[in-house]
Amino acid sequence: MDPIFNDFDSDLKKICDQLEFIDALKKLSGCIHAAPEKTEHPSFINDALTIYDISKQTHTNFPIVSGTLILYTCGRFEAMTRTLFEDLCQRLVSRASKFSKLPKKMRENLPIFTAKIIAEPRKYGHAEGGVRSFVATLASNLEPEAMVNKVNHECLSITESNMRADILSELFSRIGAEKIWARISEQASMKIYFEQSDSSAVESLAKKKLNELMDLRNKIAHPSSELNWPSTDDIRDYVEFLRITAKALADQIGVYEVTLCQNME
Q1: What is the pLDDT of residue 264?
Q2: Distance from C-alpha of 75 to C-alpha of 59, rounded to nearest angstrom
Q3: How confident is the model over 6-45, as pLDDT tens digits?
Q4: Other CB atoms closer than 10 Å to residue 77's CB: what's the count?
Q5: What is the b/e burial string over 207-230, where b = at least 16 CB atoms within 10 angstroms of the residue's CB?
């Protein structure tokens, strides 16, 4: 199993645990209790009653608490996607050995995206030391017949908006990894999730669902009176969708690794 996916999957499980806890508090807030007159654990009972009282007072806010988990969930998916992409870039470098043997689109885009970082380093979270390093790395890459053991993969992975379906596709296309959604949608797990056997239909549904999730993420980040907060079941469904999508994406990394480089001896 891919360790990058495993870390992401572990965090998704933590999110589901939080949803279970919220549901338990909801259930508790609807209970009618009668405190025992005597107990061997009075402090425990007092603490439990305090939690019960708070849950009664705040039960109408539970949708907000669970809904904000969407922000973290989307953020983790975006970070995981970029990490998978950067990992693929480094695998291609290891496989190519020479800059000239890297995928054509990767060679073309490295100067373009390095220039973006150099022009506005702080916008993308880099300091002057990072800029100097990027310049030196690119210069060494562009030497005639240059051997390569490093490229500016951090520059290639920059995005300026949420990881919507088209952004994910465009990210991977920067290194020649085309038709990423078609490949993802061919996976059995995706077809089972959407209950569709046609890969094209699955691709359309998967893109639509990811875009809906990112739209929801933005609405939660900038709430208005019109926002309908998702239920815990809604969030579980999005979490499961992201888990399946991430696994399908991770499974493609090895395929792209062995097919993108023209590793001519």
Answers
A1: 38
A2: 26
A3: 999 999 999 999 998 888 877 776 766 666 666 665 666 6
A4: 28
A5: bebbeebbebbebbeeeeeeeebb
Write the CA distances from 47 to 17, 24, 60, 105, 181, integer angstroms: 21, 16, 21, 61, 50
Contact 92, 260 (CB under 8 A): yes
- Region at 18 (left for phi over 0; alpha for psi -120 to 50; beta for the rest): alpha
- The pair phi, psi for residue 94, each rounded to 5°, is -60, -35
For residue 71, give both structure tokens. Answer: 């922000």
Please, which residues have CB within 8 angstroms of residue 214's CB and are 6 or more apart in sequence? 74, 162, 163, 164
Rg of the Cα atoms in the chain: 24
Q: Which residue in the block uniquely carries the two structure tokens 């919220």?
A: 22
Across the range 211-239, mean pLDDT stands at 91
Q: What are phi and psi of 160, to 5 degrees?
A: -120, 10
- DSSP-H helix ranges across 42-179: 42-58, 62-67, 69-96, 104-119, 128-141, 153-156, 165-173
Looking at beta carbons, which pairs linking 106-112 to residues 24 or more positions away fall under 8 Å?
A: 106/151, 106/156, 106/174, 106/175, 106/176, 106/260, 109/156, 109/174, 109/175, 110/138, 110/141, 110/151, 110/152, 110/155, 110/156, 111/138, 111/142
Report whether 250 contacts 88 (CB < 8 A).
Answer: no
Average pLDDT over residues 91-109: 94
| pTM, to two decimals | 0.89
